[in-house]
From TrEMBL:
The chain crosses the membrane at residues 16-34. The keyword Lipid metabolism does not apply. It is a single-pass type II membrane protein; Single-pass membrane protein. InterPro entries: Put_SAM_MeTrfase, SAM-dependent_MTases_sf. Gene3D superfamilies: Vaccinia Virus protein VP39. This is Methyltransferase. Keywords: Glycoprotein, Golgi apparatus, Membrane, Methyltransferase, Signal-anchor, Transferase, Transmembrane, Transmembrane helix. It is found in: Endomembrane system; Golgi apparatus membrane; Membrane. GO terms for molecular function: methyltransferase activity. GO terms for biological process: methylation.
Length: 613
């Protein structure tokens, strides 16, 4: 049957049209290949062509905060619409829930470790924000103030009132910067540390705070260009890690218990325990040995609190002089076995420095040394009472594992783990190329969303960090990045720390060790391709939604097939989603997905929702 538009004169145009189509195809193929070689003078044309493609329109995504966004139903068919969870789940932490924790032994804090729900017990609903939730204060104001509606728990204001942890003022919490062992403020405490530790010159960049409270130590180290990773258990100190992240400080729910910390060996330049109440001499010093594993050669360990200055505090601590004196002596003996040298003890503070190598160690011959190949295998691995060996050196003055440049030069210097060939298939050349690629990618992100790099997005997560190229490219005083290295990916986390960045290992088939609504910006490169045949993509997306703040953003890079699956799921999660072509053109199979989480809260226990609170 002929079309009513088939006029007789059109019959002669067939060959001409065919040649025209072939010509256009060849043109775009050549253009795409040229674009993949890098941006050149033709960028404006190429970007305009990309902009005009149907899947690359992002101008209707709004990245500003409003707290009054109408929930617009997508015209596309949805496989599943996810309903809000009950309001009782507003602070749900799937792998650290109290009810499940109480089924496990209290010995060695096992019950405070990660205990994730089985697949058939996972929630398949959206974790709600509490009524009145507001976007956190931008940094640096956010360091000192938190909206009460976001973390409505006052217990610490009473329990720690004389230690100046946190104060309640009207509808906000104020954090004066105090702590149990620094009631005069974190700045004064850090000043004393800096009289011994070279904090000011860039030698110290990564720090670990064990049992951190509300993380004021880490919060006040930022202005000294030190990035501190803090952890504490979810316990009777209600919401301490939630407060830390709400302030904009890197932190996770965690504990020194029976399994290893989720960090690589030789990660931190400095670690501290400020009245963290960790029993350092228990289990033959196993916890101190775990700190030693993650402490870099030449790094510092700070202990403020029991048993330091026990002669002054033994009555306050309700412990005998004999007991406290024996505990301190035991710590001194363990430190010597670890090749730590005491550099300072005055008042409430003692500081040790880990030696650069083991050439001058005074260890007992009976000291048990761990197998070198086991120290990087940490995910759900039991801690052992053994000492992590130093990497081998050829001279007394050599730093085991390699000497690092001072920060910020360290950020783009080739990490020693790469230059020493410790990461398979990664070379100095491929590292430099990776940096170039991520600078290019991040420049595109900033064109999509001009707020990237501003205080609007303080807490950033990279779900599959590889060499840390994304974090290095977005580095600024306004933000920090949690670099996650999946447990099924190549182990690159040690190199990330050598760059002066922080992160942790994680399996995305499980819940992350954080509270809901703790990240402003989640980035993922090749995450769903990595996990497509390992676990349910829906579970990963629901976990992303749990930890993403209302009106936070997601940027994903992945293959077009898997991103189409992701987009379909995300469409039922109250996310505004757009799929875009790769910056090198539509012929590249990798695509970009940009999403904004809508603002909504559950206003009553009966799952009624509102988007205009």
């Amino acid at each position: 049957m002929g079309s009513k538009h088939n006029f007789p004169g059109n019959k002669n145009r067939g060959p001409i049209s065919l040649f025209a189509v072939i010509g256009l195809c060849l043109f775009f193929y050549i253009l795409g290949a040229w674009q993949r070689s890098g941006f050149g003078k033709g960028d404006s044309i190429a970007m305009e062509i990309t902009r005009l493609s149907n899947c690359n329109v992002v101008k209707d995504l709004n990245f500003e905060t409003h707290h009054s966004i109408e929930i617009i139903e997508s015209s596309e068919p949805k496989k599943k619409v996810f309903k809000p969870c009950d309001i009782k789940y507003k602070d749900y932490t799937p792998c650290q829930e109290q009810d499940r924790a109480m089924r496990f032994p209290r010995e060695n804090m096992i019950y405070r470790e990660r205990h994730c729900p089985p697949v058939d017990e996972k929630l398949h609903c959206l974790i709600p924000a509490p009524k009145g939730y507001m976007t956190p204060f931008p940094w640096p104001k956010g360091r000192d103030y938190v909206h009460y509606a976001n973390v409505p728990y006052k217990s610490l204001t009473v329990e720690k009132a004389n230690q100046h942890w946190v104060e309640f003022q009207g509808n906000v919490f104020k954090f004066p910067g105090g702590g149990t062992m620094f009631p005069q403020g974190a700045d004064a405490y850090i000043d004393e540390l800096a009289s011994v530790i070279p904090i000011a010159d860039g030698s110290i960049r990564t720090a670990l705070d064990t049992g951190c409270g509300v993380a004021s130590w880490g919060a006040y180290l930022f202005k000294r260009n030190v990035l501190a990773m803090s952890f504490a258990p979810r316990d009777n100190h209600e919401a301490q890690i939630q407060f830390a992240l709400e302030r904009g400080v890197p932190a996770i729910i965690g504990v020194l218990g029976s399994i290893r910390l989720p960090y690589p060996s030789r990660a931190f330049d400095m670690a501290q325990c400020s009245r963290c109440l960790i029993p350092w001499t228990a289990n033959d010093g196993m916890y101190l040995m775990e700190v030693d594993r993650v402490l870099r050669p030449g790094g510092y360990w700070i202990l403020s609190g029991p048993p330091i200055n026990w002669k002054t505090y033994y009555q306050t601590w309700k412990r005998s002089k004999k007991d406290l004196n024996a505990e301190q002596k035991k710590i001194e003996e363990l430190a010597e076995q670890l090749c730590w040298e005491k550099k300072y003890e005055k008042g409430d503070i003692a500081i040790w420095r880990k030696k650069d190598n083991d050439k001058s160690c005074k260890r007992k011959k009976t000291a048990k040394i761990c197998e070198a190949n086991d120290v990087e295998d940490v995910w759900y691995q039991k801690m052992e009472t053994c000492i992590t060996p130093f990497p081998e050196v050829t001279s007394d003055g050599e730093v085991a594992g390699g000497k690092l440049k001072k920060f910020p030069a360290r950020l783009f210097a080739v990490p020693p783990r790469i230059s020493n060939g410790l990461i398979p298939e990664v070379t100095a050349e491929s590292f430099e190329e990776d940096n170039k690629i991520w600078r290019k990618h991040v420049n595109v992100y900033k064109k999509i969303n001009k707020l990237i790099g501003s205080p609007r997005y303080r807490n950033v997560m990279d779900m599959n960090a590889n060499l840390g190229g994304f974090a290095a490219a977005v580095h600024s005083k306004n933000a920090w990045v949690m670099n996650v290295v999946p447990t099924i990916a190549k182990n690159t986390l040690g190199a990330i720390y050598e760059r002066g960045l922080v992160g942790m290992y994680h399996d995305w088939c499980e819940g992350f060790s954080t509270y809901p609504r703790t990240y402003d910006f989640i980035h993922g490169n090749d995450v769903f391709n990595l996990y497509e045949n390992t676990c349910n993509l829906e579970d990963i997306l629901l976990e992303m939604d749990r930890i993403l703040r209302p009106e936070g953003i997601v940027i994903l890079r992945d293959g077009v097939d898997v991103l189409n699956k992701v987009k379909k799921i995300a469409a039922g999660m109250r996310w505004d989603v757009k799929l875009m072509d790769h910056e090198d053109g539509p012929l590249v199979p990798e695509k970009i997905m940009v999403a904004v989480k809508q603002y909504w809260v559950v206003s009553s226990p009966h799952n009624s929702t509102s988007s205009d609170e």
